[in-house]
Amino acid sequence: MGLRDDLERFREVGEQRREDLKEFISYGDLGASGAKDIKIPIKVVDLPEFRYDRLDMGGVGQGKGGTPDVGQPLGQPQPAPGEGDDGEPGEEGAEHEYYEMDPEQFAEALDEELGLQLEPKGKEVVEEVEGDFTDITRTGPHSTLDFERLFKEGLKRKLAMDFDEDFVREAMKVEGVTADDVYRWCRENNILVSLAWIDDEWSRIPDDERDTWESFEEMEANVEQTTAVQRIRRDGLKEIPFRREDERYRHPEIIEKKQSNVVVVNIRDVSGSMRETKRELVERTFTPLDWYLTGKYDHAEFVYIAHDAEAWEVERDEFFGIRSGGGTRISSAYELANEVLDERYPWREWNRYVFAAGDSENSSNDTKERVIPLMQEIDANLHAYVETQPGGTAINATHAEEVERTLGDEGNVVVAYVSQPDDVIDAIYRILSTEATAE
Amino acid sequence: MSFRRHRRDAQKEAARLDEPVREAGALARKLGLDPYPVNYWVVNYDEMNQLIAYGGFQERYPHWRWGMAYDRQRKTDQFGMGKAFEIVNNDEPANAFLQESNSLADQKAVITHVEAHSDFFNRNQWFGMFSDEGQFDAAAMLERHAQAIERYIQNPDVSRDDVEKFIDAVLCLEDTIDQHRSIREAAEDKDGRIPEDIRSQLKNLNISDDVRREVFDDEWLDQIEEAEREAAKITAPRKDVVAYIREHGMRFDEESGKAVAMEPWQMDVLDMLREEAYYFAAQKMTKVMNEGWAAYWESLMMGDERFAGTDEFITYADHQSRVLGSPGLNPYKLGKELWEYIENTTNRAEVAEKLLRVKGITWRNFREAVDFDEVQRLLRTDPVIDGVNAEAVDELAALGPDDPRVDHEMLDRVLSGDESIDVDAYPWKVLSYEGLAARHYSLVKPQNRGFLRRIRRSELEHLSRYMFDDDLYDSVEEAIADVDKCAGWDRMREIRESHNDVTFLDAFLTEEFVRSNHYFAYEYSQSSRQFRVSSTEYEAVKKKLLFQFTNFGKPTIAVYDGNFDNRGELLLGHQYNGVILDVRQARGVLERVYHLWGRPVNLMTVTKEFDEHEVEVARRRGREPTPVERAIRIRYDGSEFSVHDLDPALEERIAASDIDYDTKPDDWL
């Protein structure tokens, strides 16, 4: 009970009402999110109520530094009713609530939603760290002596050796028994006593008590045997039989910490034929892939390559916005990717993903002669080509097809087609599931 | 007074505030206020956010909505936008919370503000409507509710989801109550019980069909049913929808596929949430008045009476400018200015009335006959009263034992050497209510200098209309000496007893106020698809403002029939005043009300439809299209919505005849 619970419940309620992940990826506003925090719009979280139509009710305002003129517009025009509204009058312009996720949660949610199970591969031994002091040796500096263990072993030994001395003494008071009889009786009763101890004690039993009991049975029936725990409780731990062989010294465990690193190369055709809608489709496909892989690996780095006939590396912020006029030579991007990967992200240490997107248009023979050999040459967990071609396939756009035909069976090459927002989820699924099965 | 004692910072802060708390309470009472005793608590930043989320209390029933409020509060606060200065709850004793990080000036301001709120809680009749019913102990009530609902949630026979869903449904209706009446009166509305099916009852009697037919023939049964149905009709719409549902609501039982009686816990939750809705209603109804009231007295105590002390005054001024300077329609500012306006107009009327009784002065020659500078000089506060300090107590004594402006008991103690009274720090201690009224007389304040002069002829004429002793005074001096300087405050206290925001604005919002604050009304233009300024006229602005405050600024929804269509369906009606409902929201509410009714639910309302062609034509011609109003009934049967044309007889019942909140000018764009 309390506000913490209420907050927790609110989060749960919010999660139930957050925009469906698929819908968010295909149609939602990706712009509110950053590389490390994903903000999914929440559909109306608060309870509904009877209220006036926001537009019809109008209102009262206060002019700053003067009374405004009648007819003066206030704020931006509203979207026309009927334009892209699912009967949500009154909701537009309302406060936006977001359900916030980190990439890890995003990856988890996407796994769940798409039924994926991609296990990131550990690649690089980053460092050997001293772990907890959990390894043990028989010698060592005094300060690392595992006293707890020594004490435990001693205690175990004591418990093993300990017996109810009084009880055995009573046994010596049975009429007509000898020390050997008592010893044998003790062994039968699992009392761990030595004959020497019995001999030693024998002489101390007063003679007038030697016939207290007629038999062992009678004695057992009348004298209560105490357990070791009872005796320790009663008498305290007088001494613990420490032994040299129980001494253990702790030293830290050496852990080889494998960090799974991933580098994602995003390649995008920015040539003149890539129009606004196509660009948006690329962004919708690439961004969730980036989030997903960021969430899956311990450490993720991204390389963004834009290309027309030439290729150049850019920052993420510019990546989806660039437009250029030139022709298209896809191999230029792969050449640059190859260079960057070799130089900065050795295959031995990095998981590599190379994602390229474009409208499949390429200069003649470039795909066959240059791109395909490069894709074979560049070691990567996955090569993907996303063809964005709203409005159908043009005649000279054969890059995707050729790649698929030639490399489709390689296991680490996948081609996906996105011609409308609805295809985005399928493409993401196709790409990620190829990686998952290629293991 | 009690403070949290378990943290050192809070404790230190508490000790520092001991004196301000004691003295603010005393000053407030001297000024004629009558606050409930207030317990002050020092809390940290996070606790403050929690209290705000919980509506000013420490314990509320478990619900995600508090979590949402808390989350939002923290987020607004992150950007420094919603710095919380005070939170005080309406209770006897009231509880106020001070944030330990506030400056001393802030704390003092909060304390004076809180004392005024507490007076308002105690003396405003809308608050009284709840607090006068039986034992008033809000914190205990809310705590009891919290524990009861917690128990229902813990109960293994009831799922947490069910409880929460049920609460959700009731909360959707928290404003559809009859807030102008007490919770008890609102529940007492007479309406017949929904008749149980008499035939099926007879069937259950286990008598043979023959006998039954013999004794209860069909004609007789039809008559009975008809009579019962008539009796069950709701003659006047029931505004307290929650109470109605409490009496007649059911729940849909999945297993048997029909509506069955509510579980006892559901009835209990309904009762509790309804009680809370009535408890909080008064605050929602008096926001402008109450905030303005607190801001007015805070400003008087802190600024004019220098409760802040001179060195803290600058920070105080800063504090106040932050509170009052918030953009948009600010209830503090609107309320405070209206209270000041009431004070000034009352004082002015008092002065004018006295002057009109001077020989030779009439409403016709008032402006020429009266030397306003002279009047202003005569009204000036006696310097002995104005400049009270420890050195000058003898001058006070010299005024004589009958001077009503002096608190003679206190003065005697000071004169006989009682050092516990620090006249320099608290000069008001040796003054009476009359003395303080003179000391803070509004018409002599610099900002009100021209106010007296601006009196309208119509007002003067009105004042003199029924005046008989109009030659009572020989001179202006004589008349002014007789002016009751308490008139303003006396009137203000009367008004705070009986008004709520709607009546307050209706009575006191003036043209002058609207103009000088540059208020304007705006409406949505269908043809340009944006909001536009529709009017700067006083009447239009006032109309819109009243609209925003009437019925919590929400549409009025009432129960019109509990046995609609003779099928036990609930019929709610939106009392249409020219502004349409947010239909999507309304549908959301219906879905939830279904959980409370167990049978189909209906809502009557009016929509506006625009013909696309007409909108297009209007846009081209630069005018607004005329909507077609259509009365409809939205029905929800538990799984689907359907929309029907509304029966004309019913349409008549929900349409308000003469109200029009539309401020669109004829020639607009």
Task: Provide tags for this entry.
A: 439 residues, Rossmann fold, 3 domains, 6-stranded mixed beta sheet, two-stranded antiparallel sheet, 17% strand, elongated, B: 669 residues, alpha+beta, disordered N terminus
Task: Give structural notes.
The complex is a heterodimer of chains A (439) and B (669). Helices cover 39% and strands 17% of the residues of chain A. Chain A is of the alpha/beta class and 439 residues long. Chain A folds into 3 domains: 59 residues, no CATH class; 110 residues, no CATH class; 180 residues, Rossmann fold, CATH 3.40.50. Chain A is elongated. Chain A starts with a helix and ends with a helix. In chain B, 51% of the residues lie in helices and 11% in strands. Chain B contains 31 helices and 12 strands. In chain B, helix 29 links the parallel strand 9 and strand 10. In chain B, helix 1 packs across helix 4, helix 4 crosses helix 14 and helix 16 packs across helix 25. The two termini of chain B are 60 Å apart. The chains are: A alpha/beta (439), B alpha+beta (669). At the A-B interface, helix 1, helix 3, strand 2 and strand 3 of A face helix 3, helix 7, strand 6, strand 7 and helix 28 of B. Strand 3 of chain A pairs antiparallel with strand 7 of chain B.
